[in-house]
Amino acid sequence: MTSPLPHRSATSTAPERQDEEELHQRRTAITALGHELRALVDAAVRTTAAPSTLNRVSDGVHRLTAQLIGHLRARAEVPEVDEFPGGVRMYSPVTGPGSPLAPPLRVTRLDRGATGTCVLGITHEGPPGYGHGGISAMLLDELMGWACATAGMPGMTVSLQMRYHRPVPLESPLRVLAHVTGTEGRKVYVTGSIATEEDLSTVLVTAEGVFVSPDPEHARALFPSLRSAPG
Ligand SMILES: CCCCCCCC(=O)SCCNC(=O)CCNC(=O)[C@H](O)C(C)(C)COP(=O)(O)OP(=O)(O)OC[C@H]1O[C@@H](n2cnc3c(N)ncnc32)[C@H](O)[C@@H]1OP(=O)(O)O
């Protein structure tokens, strides 16, 4: 199972340990804020509170936001708390423990594949009581991307074909699966599915995707903040 928290190394030198401790504290705080934000978003889309209460909460949230906007990172800059590419992404809208949008999906790497678990909430609702089709596509796109990475070919989605067989329930543990089925040059072919933990044999959604590993020149142009990174 992937963890948003850093691994600690017994062989770290003292300054490294200090850095690791600081990273651990930041990730723990980001995770705690993400948890509270998800609770806020959930309550905000479910509440039947009076307009006066909504206005009061709105003012309070505005004041809280002001405490953060003095410390924003530049757009497209990889957060210091992340390991990109190929590792922790604290603010991913799918897996990020710091993201109010993320369920978040908890991912386990498999051999040329990946599996993920999550619970969708009312924030992710499409038809009343069920998940939005775009959210299912988001879960599968992400996990299929992880599957590519486990096959040693991290890439970007160029094609994603979805099939919605049955509605995806909210507030019910889900299992998402993805497997690489083949590669051809820089292209990776991947399949994915969503089922409930309760009934793994009844597939609710399936997907077929093509991912492409950008060539190095293209990758440097797309991700300039990684210009000095190895590879
Ligand atoms: C671990 C975390 C995982 C996270 C996963 C998240 C996944 C995402 O959401 S990625 C974001 C969404 N995707 C994107 O924004 C990608 C946008 N596309 C691009 O930028 C470019 O297409 C890019 C960089 C991927 C590839 O560009 P480039 O390197 O020039 O590839 P290009 O030469 O055009 O095509 C490579 C091959 O793919 C094929 N291909 C391109 N597009 C498609 C397509 N839509 N369908 C099928 N095949 C395609 C080409 O035919 C070519 O095949 P061949 O080598 O056999 O001729």
Automatic annotation (TrEMBL):
Give start and end of each Thioesterase domain. 129-199
What domain of life?
Answer: Bacteria
Q: What is its EC number?
A: 3.1.2.2
The record gives the membrane topology as: Peripheral membrane protein
**Which CDD domains has this protein been placed in?**
PaaI_thioesterase
Task: Output the Gene3D superfamilies linked to this UniProt entry.
Answer: Hotdog Thioesterase
Give this protein's Gene Ontology molecular function annotations.
hydrolase activity
Q: What is the lineage of its organism?
A: Bacteria, Bacillati, Actinomycetota, Actinomycetes, Kitasatosporales
Q: Which family does it belong to?
A: Belongs to the THEM4/THEM5 thioesterase family.
Record-given protein name: Acyl-coenzyme A thioesterase THEM4
The record's region (Disordered) falls at 1-25
According to its UniProt record, where is this protein located?
Cell projection, Ruffle membrane; Cytoplasm; Membrane
Going by the UniProt record, its keywords in alphabetical order are: Apoptosis, Cell membrane, Cell projection, Cytoplasm, Fatty acid metabolism, Hydrolase, Lipid metabolism, Membrane, Transit peptide
Q: Per the UniProt entry, what species is this protein from, by scientific name?
A: Streptomyces wedmorensis
Polar residues bias spans: 1-15
The record's annotation in PANTHER family points to:
ACYL-COENZYME A THIOESTERASE THEM4
Q: Which reaction does it catalyse?
A: tetradecanoyl-CoA + H2O = tetradecanoate + CoA + H(+); octanoyl-CoA + H2O = octanoate + CoA + H(+); (5Z,8Z,11Z,14Z)-eicosatetraenoyl-CoA + H2O = (5Z,8Z,11Z,14Z)-eicosatetraenoate + CoA + H(+); (9Z)-octadecenoyl-CoA + H2O = (9Z)-octadecenoate + CoA + H(+)
Q: What class of enzyme is it?
A: hydrolase
Quote the InterPro entries the UniProt record gives.
HotDog_dom_sf, THEM4/THEM5_acyl-CoA_thioest, Thioestr_dom
| Any Pfam family hit | 4HBT
